[in-house]
Amino acid sequence: MLYFKHFCRVYRRNITQTCVRLYSRNILKLKDRGMYQDIFPNTAASDILNLLNSSPQCVYAGFDPTADSLHVGNLLVIINLLHWQRGGHDVIALLGGATGHIGDPSGKSTDRVALSSNIIAENIACIKSNLETVFENHKKYIWSEDEDKLKPIRIVNNETWYKEINSIQFVSDIGRNFRMGTMLLKQSVKNRINSEVGMSFTEFAYQIFQSYDWLYLLKEYNCRFQVGGSDQMGNISAGHELISRMMKQDVYGLTLPLVTTEEGDKFGKSAGNALWLDGKKTSPYSLYQYFIRTKDSDVERLLKLFTFYSMGEIKDIMFKHKHHPEQRYPQMCLADQLTTLVHGEEGLTRARQATNAIYSKDVKSLVSLSASDLEQVFDSAPVTKLLLSPGITVLKLGMMANCFPTEGDAMRIIEAGGFYINHQRIKNINEVITESAHILPNLISLLRVGKRNYYIVKWQT
């Protein structure tokens, strides 16, 4: 396809031209990209600016282990942390090994399902790996300045300090700084208390623990900034209040917008399912395709939020799009950088190969894919395992792979030219299947009926 060939030409250039002019300490400039929804306290912008310009600061964001992978919905927070890192600041990712047992009620209409300690530990390990991979890919493939200028991310688990705290002492020393009236006014609490299901004390207490996390990080690392999604404002303001009472030190919170498509759908949702950062749960191809399919009305905003292109570069990208919209150049830039960020250069190569395998209709493109890649690319295609034996005809293969409801349908469709093996049209129902002509080196045959109905045959020899 035209856009794919064009992408191949510009990929190497774009990946090395990624904006290195965004390493100003003043990360408030990101507001020009639509990165921030609120600053807390809302009168503190000038104080924050003075702090950022005077010396490197420390910022943190929290990630609770509710699943064994982060997803695309977490990317805006991660990318915001990367901007802080590019500005020379210290970045902390807090993993909720302890708070994962409690569950954040923000944005939830019912109590979260309690997770076992083993599951939480496994999820923590996976999320830690997600974060390390993204930060390493950014340094290796997107950041083009001296690598030593990037301070390494610090990943901490709040279980390490809560397991040392006496519960009575915690309630006595920390709990007394919270006022019930204030806690009840938090939006996440009000929504749940006024609902039919109500709210458990466990989740009601979540804001106390998140507040203490910030207090601990302030004492330990002088962490004066917290970033989070727009639904975290209640927890952020609670932490600010606790620190003001106990430390009498100024700290600041910044919330990021909930990103939705033009139709109001949550960003990162595909057919109702989350797009995971773990390549085993969501293939690089699926992630790449999600961004390639971004609508024209959404793409400029997503380039500003989710890539490191400068505002000038984004303007140029959109200018090219205006003159050649059929090339989908902004979508390619978006897919290029985000797939590289999540899966590295190798993942992007696999995604491009998979894209080519579908759209080029060339059997050579299929040969470049592994068996697992093919299954991920055609993830909705039924998979049939067959024993390779002499005398299997095209008609018999189509029936054994359940491509047709009846033999009569099979004969009619095949003879009319509507059946393909490895992108090659086959019209002779009596043609015998051979390893050299019909089976890929990975012992797979990709069958297609019509334009979009794919079937995978895994041959057993």
Automatic annotation (TrEMBL):
Cellular component per GO, a single term: cytosol
Any one GO BP annotation for this protein: tyrosyl-tRNA aminoacylation
EC number: 6.1.1.1
InterPro entries: aa-tRNA-synth_I_CS, aa-tRNA-synth_Ic, Rossmann-like_a/b/a_fold, S4_RNA-bd_sf, Tyr-tRNA-ligase, Tyr-tRNA-ligase_bac-type, Tyr-tRNA-ligase_bac_1
Keywords: Aminoacyl-tRNA synthetase, ATP-binding, Ligase, Mitochondrion, Nucleotide-binding, Protein biosynthesis, Transit peptide
Predominant subcellular localization, coarse grouping: mitochondrion
Keyword RNA-binding: no
Protein task: Catalyzes the attachment of tyrosine to tRNA(Tyr) in a two-step reaction: tyrosine is first activated by ATP to form Tyr-AMP and then transferred to the acceptor end of tRNA(Tyr).
PANTHER family associated with the record: TYROSINE--TRNA LIGASE, MITOCHONDRIAL, TYROSYL-TRNA SYNTHETASE
Full protein name: Tyrosine--tRNA ligase
Gene: LOC106119007
